[in-house]
Specification:
Elements lengths: L9 H15 L4 E6 L12 H5 L6 E5 L2 E6 L2 E6 L5 E6 L8 E7 L3 E6 L6 E5 L7 H4 L12 H8 L6 H5 L10 H11 L12 H24 L36 E5 L2 E5 L6
Antiparallel strand pairs: 1-6, 2-3, 3-4, 4-8, 5-7, 6-7, 9-10
Helix pairs in contact: 1-7, 4-7, 6-7
The chain binds a DNA duplex (16 and 16 nucleotides) through loops.
Length: 277
DNA sequence: CTTTGCACCTGTTGGC
DNA sequence: TGCCAACAGGTGCAAA
């Protein structure tokens, strides 16, 4: 199971960034094609006036947002649930759901495909972190600021279930629904546990699991990273076999008891009621 | 401030 | 076999 219809989690976004950067950084934007501006928010109509003729200074990432820096500001891209980006030769014919192109002076173009259109392409003329979408984000999971003491402090007095808590971007970014279930299984924590009830030791374990899981996934993406020209636009590494996600009724890989499914905040949570307490 | 619920969208899946 | 409702996911935002 790789490529194709993978929901872009943080490792996929980071791998995409690494794949695109060599083609973008230093290249100058010569044109913009907007076939369908109706993403989560409309793609700005005047985008070419914002960045046309300017070189891409850098491609960075904050949470699952890709940030393309120019002298005049930055292009903010989000892949939503079904978005992918790739580099193609100029004049490559667009297919269904290819909503946006950035034309480059190196004979290539960067193309966004996003069937569900939950993604976003925005322009921000100000400093990074002054954009409303970025200003209130929590720490990166791989940053040292995301540590046991931080999570312990952040959870104090909070009544919400830990599953929903770690998916809150104000707490820590990059933990999606799949990773949340997987991380809580590995940490041995039941998803419905009130955040404020976690001990420091359990916070430490959870932080460790989240960091390790994401780091391994990013390394796996990097190790198989080839060429973003003419490929699917999805990082081509094999997805790690799930411990609990999507395994309702199947035997727990640790104790063989059936995996349970519950809804938390309208989202599916999978867990083992014996191994997670 | 905290917490809950919803909207956005379309390809895929499951039930009849 | 065919049809259609339900479902999945990320995340900003409105409402309680």
């Amino acid at each position: 199971m790789s490529g194709g219809s993978v929901v872009p989690e943080l490792p996929e976004v980071e791998t995409t960034r690494r794949g695109l950067a060599p083609y973008l950084e230093g290249a100058t934007v010569t044109g913009v094609v907007i076939r369908n501006p109706r993403l989560r928010w409309p793609i700005p109509e005047n985008l070419l006036q914002c960045l046309g003729g300017l070189p891409v200074i850098s491609l960075t990432r904050r949470a699952k947002y890709l940030l393309m820096e120019f002298d005049s500001g930055m292009l903010i891209l989000h892949l939503g649930m079904s978005g992918s980006l790739r580099i193609l030769p100029k004049n490559t014919l667009p297919e269904k759901h290819d909503h946006f192109d950035l034309l480059l002076d190196n004979g290539k173009l960067m193309r966004l495909r996003d069937p569900r259109r939950f993604g976003a392409i925005l322009w921000h003329a100000g400093e990074i972190n002054t954009h409303p979408l970025l200003a209130k984000l929590g720490p990166e999971p791989l940053n040292e600021h995301f540590n046991a003491r931080y999570l312990y402090q952040a959870t104090r007095g909070r009544n919400v279930a830990i599953k929903q808590f770690i998916m809150d971007n104000h707490v820590v970014v990059g933990v999606g629904n799949i990773y949340a279930s997987e991380a809580l299984f590995s940490a041995g924590i039941a998803p419905q546990t009130r955040a404020g009830k976690l001990s420091l030791a359990r916070c430490a374990g959870l932080v460790d699991i989240i960091r390790t899981t994401l780091r391994v996934a990013i390394e796996a993406g990097g190790s198989t990273l080839r060429d973003f020209v003419n490929v699917s636009g999805h990082p081509g590494y094999f997805q790690q076999e799930h411990q609990v996600y999507g395994r309702t009724g199947e035997p727990c890989r640790r104790c063989t008891r059936p995996i349970k499914l519950i809804k938390q905040g309208q989202r599916s949570s999978f867990y083992c009621e014996y191994c997670q307490t």
